[in-house]
Amino acid sequence: MNRLLTFLVGPESVLTGLTLVVYWFCARHGSYASRDVTILERTLWLLPFVAIALAYATFLVPGARSWSWLVRVNIALLIALVVGSVRIIDGFKEPGTGPNGGAIGLLVVICLWILVGSLANSIAAAFLLAEHRPAWAQWFRERKILGGLLIVVSAVPMAFAMSTLTGVAAGIYASLPRFFQR
């Protein structure tokens, strides 16, 4: 399959489209009325699940099944979720009215991404391992219950790694303005 197709229908383009839809949706519900704020709060809770489902659906694109694809999905998901959730949180209150608890909303989105994303990463990694290593595929076929439990258990260290890397990325991002000050 054409390598360009994996980028055109890859996780980056799909999540860019989702981010554009979030921006459009927030523009339609930006009146700061209680009804619009309620809709945006529900959207904030729904965002990680929709983003993860769309990002991992790109696994079905021919030529996308590689370990680099898994890295691309996680980076694109983190960026799309942070940008989308910050845009949704901006619609909670009128500018200049003080704090609104937006950091908690961002924390909820990141935590949901880590919890659900670690399980999705484990499942995708099991599929990639079975596809690239025929012996593993045979092992999974012979031990379906044990293989399923192994996938679920492997989500725990995956979540730990995702939370560590997210914390490192947030720390680097937070220290950039101080680094460039005189």
Describe this structure in words.
This protein has helices spanning 3-8, 11-28, 34-57, 67-90, 102-132, 134-142, 144-180. Helices cover 82% and strands 0% of the residues. It is elongated. With 182 residues, it is mainly alpha-helical. It contains 7 helices and no strands.
Helix content: over 70%
Spans where pLDDT lies below 50 across 5 or more residues: none
User: Main beta sheet: strand number and arrangement?
Assistant: none
Secondary-structure element sequence? HHHHHHH
Number of strands: 0
Determine the strand fraction and express it as a percent band.
Answer: under 5%
- How many alpha or pi helices? 7
What's the quaternary structure here?
Answer: single chain
Structural class: mainly alpha
Rounded to an integer in angstroms, the radius of gyration calculated over CA atoms is 19 Å
Quote the distance from N terminus to C terminus. 50 Å
- Mean pLDDT across the residues is 86
Shape: elongated
How would the blueprint of this fold be written?
Blueprint: H1 3-8, H2 11-28, H3 34-57, H4 67-90, H5 102-132, H6 134-142, H7 144-180
Helix pairs in contact: 2-3, 2-4, 3-4, 3-5, 4-5, 5-6, 5-7, 6-7
